[in-house]
């Protein structure tokens, strides 16, 4: 089953799978809710799931499917290399991480690996995950503060929103910049988006 909100991508994947003697595409879904409904009915051996979708995102959809069907074999399809997204996807139960930019080369091999009960994470994703494991992760509060900075809020506005002192917010921002090795607030937001700490 392929789950993606872009019909063109689904058609491309369908064309590749149709050319394989040992594979059949049994379903296409454009969102997470539809994917769960189809999974209940069809129980595909392998599901390819987009991360960013309008109704329910890929990570939530994986959690929902694997809650009902723990043996579900799901690969994430994404344009993002962000390590935090990869970690969330893996924690949710994804068994593979496919970058859309490498689909042509890796799609068929990855489906076969998954069908054989194996996992697949591209070397660049594995390397990126490893490179960030030794760095401090942002705390929940730091992520909230960074999200506010991304929306253009001042320290005073952020302090007021969380009922904290301005000095406390300044401390959070210092910590965020240190952990992300950022030069300034804008750079911190840009790294936060790139690494998947915040959605924007």
TrEMBL record:
One BP term from GO: regulation of DNA-templated transcription
Domain Response regulatory: 1-115
DNA-binding as UniProt keyword: yes
Keywords tagged on the record: DNA-binding, Phosphoprotein
One Gene Ontology molecular-function label: DNA binding
Modification sites for 4-aspartylphosphate: 50
Tagged with keyword Transmembrane helix: no
Residue ranges of every copy of the HTH luxR-type domain listed in the record: 131-196
Name of the featured protein: DNA-binding response regulator
Species in which this protein is naturally found: Halomonas salipaludis
């Amino acid at each position: 089953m392929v789950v993606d909100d872009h019909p063109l991508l689904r058609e491309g994947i369908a064309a590749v799978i149709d050319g394989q003697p040992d594979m059949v595409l049994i379903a296409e879904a454009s969102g997470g809710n539809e994917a769960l409904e189809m999974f209940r009915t069809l129980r595909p051996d392998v599901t390819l799931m987009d991360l960013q979708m309008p109704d329910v995102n890929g990570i939530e959809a994986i959690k929902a499917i694997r809650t009902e069907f723990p043996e579900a074999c799901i690969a994430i399809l994404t344009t993002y290399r962000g390590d935090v997204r990869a970690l969330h996807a893996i924690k949710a139960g994804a068994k593979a991480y496919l970058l859309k930019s490498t689909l042509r080369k890796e799609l068929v091999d990855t489906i076969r690996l998954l069908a054989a009960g194996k996992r697949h994470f591209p070397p660049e994703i594995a390397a990126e995950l490893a490179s960030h494991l030794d760095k401090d992760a942002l705390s929940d509060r730091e992520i909230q503060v960074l999200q506010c900075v991304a929306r253009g809020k001042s320290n005073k506005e952020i302090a007021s929103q969380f009922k904290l002192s301005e000095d406390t917010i300044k401390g959070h921002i210092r910590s965020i910049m240190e952990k992300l090795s950022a030069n300034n607030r804008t750079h911190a937001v840009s790294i936060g988006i790139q690494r998947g700490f915040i959605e924007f």
